[in-house]
């Protein structure tokens, strides 16, 4: 079973306008609503690929109820902690001549609520997959990822961590199954400027030496590389298409990799992850199965 954790889920209200004028009434061309957050995005795309998952995390207020209902209506199982105060955030995504995001803050998460999440994590069993993705709300301990991995360290769980900087570096001692920084995040972690593929591979290997089982580095137009658990290096180019959307492409890549790695074929996992990320980038929303497998043919 795959479990995804989203600490701060959101309703994404996406609006399209020809030209936004500040200080005036603007009429929209179109609008959409999505239920999101990095872990939830992974669950949505896994579901599209036929992989069942359970979405964990925190929801609050009327927006939290809407998020949970919307996810369940897509056939995804949920087991959120319901907070007593506040409401889950609404993010406004303005699509015009320039893209502008207005992201909500989200509710305060209490120690009591965190304890409830740990109790839900007790149900994980050996060989389950746990996806921890995204930033940590200010009301939560900065080392919550470390604490969760320490709490589960006596179980043989495959943990996927999609985070940056110290948040990622500090969990490597727990040997996560997969990490997925991009090349710029790799530079930030080691305080270097990476000028070519050999240098990217060198520092990706360092992350593996520090404990990561599989290291996936996305490199935008330059594709992606994977150093797998057998230390084998895989490289994959990009899919061709017209980019419409940057939200959720990385989460989709994680979902594709998880789905593709079910039989231990990491070359296929990298290709499926690349195609899945591309399918989201080329769509208005998250990747759909038919587009994913059409793009997979390019690879």
Describe the structure concisely.
The chain has 299 residues and is α/β, with parallel strands linked by helices.
Mean pLDDT: 94
Radius of gyration from the alpha-carbon trace, in angstroms: 19 Å
Q: How much strand content do the residues show? A: 15-25%
Name the poorly predicted regions. none
What distance separates the N and C termini?
A: 28 Å
Q: Count the E strands.
A: 14
Helix tally equals 10
Shape: globular
Order of helices and strands: EEEHEHEEEEHEHEHEHHEEEHHH
Largest sheet: 10 strands, mixed
Helix content: 25-40%
Structural class: alpha/beta
What brief labels describe this structure?
299 residues; ten-stranded mixed β-sheet; four-stranded mixed β-sheet; 10 helices; 14 strands
Explain how this protein is built.
The protein has 299 residues and is α/β, with parallel strands linked by helices. The chain contains ten helices and 14 strands. Strand 13 and strand 14 form a beta hairpin. Helix 1 crosses helix 8. The longest helix is centred in the last third of the chain and has 16 residues. It starts with a strand and ends with a helix.
What is the topology?
Elements: E1 2-6, E2 10-16, E3 30-36, H1 38-48, E4 53-59, H2 61-73, E5 77-78, E6 81-82, E7 89-95, E8 99-102, H3 111-121, E9 129-133, H4 144-151, E10 158-162, H5 165-169, E11 178-179, H6 183-190, H7 197-209, E12 214-218, E13 224-227, E14 233-236, H8 249-260, H9 266-281, H10 289-296
Parallel strand pairs: 1-4, 1-9, 2-7, 4-5, 4-6, 9-10, 10-11, 11-12
Antiparallel strand pairs: 2-3, 7-8, 12-13, 13-14
């Amino acid at each position: 079973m795959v479990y995804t954790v989203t600490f701060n889920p959101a309703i994404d209200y996406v609006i399209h306008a020809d030209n936004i004028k500040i200080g005036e009434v603007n009429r929209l061309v179109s609008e959409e609503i999505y239920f999101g957050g990095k872990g939830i995005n992974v669950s949505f795309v896994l579901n599209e690929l036929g992989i069942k998952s359970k979405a964990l995390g925190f929801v609050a207020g009327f927006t939290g109820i809407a998020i949970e209902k919307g996810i369940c209506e897509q056939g995804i199982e949920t087991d959120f902690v319901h907070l007593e105060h506040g409401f889950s955030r609404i993010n406004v995504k303005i699509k015009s001549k320039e893209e502008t995001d207005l992201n909500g803050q989200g509710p305060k998460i209490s120690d009591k609520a965190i304890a409830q999440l740990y109790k839900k994590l007790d149900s994980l069993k050996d060989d389950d997959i746990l996806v921890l993705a995204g930033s940590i709300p200010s009301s939560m301990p900065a080392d919550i990822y470390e604490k969760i991995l320490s709490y589960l360290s006596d179980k043989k769980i495959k943990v996927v961590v999609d985070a940056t900087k110290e948040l990622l570096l500090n969990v490597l001692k727990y040997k996560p199954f997969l990490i997925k920084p991009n090349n710029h995040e790799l530079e930030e972690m080691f305080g270097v400027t990476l000028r070519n593929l050999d240098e990217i591979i060198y520092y990706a290997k360092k992350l593996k030496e520090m404990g990561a089982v599989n290291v996936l580095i996305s490199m935008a137009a330059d594709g992606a590389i994977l150093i797998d658990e057998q230390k084998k290096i895989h490289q994959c180019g990009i899919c061709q298409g017209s980019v419409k959307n940057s939200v959720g492409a990385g989460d989709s890549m994680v979902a594709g990799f998880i789905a593709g790695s079910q039989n231990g074929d990491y070359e296929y996992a990298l290709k499926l992850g690349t195609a899945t990320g591309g399918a989201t980038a080329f769509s208005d929303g998250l990747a759909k199965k038919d587009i994913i497998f059409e793009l997979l043919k390019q690879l």
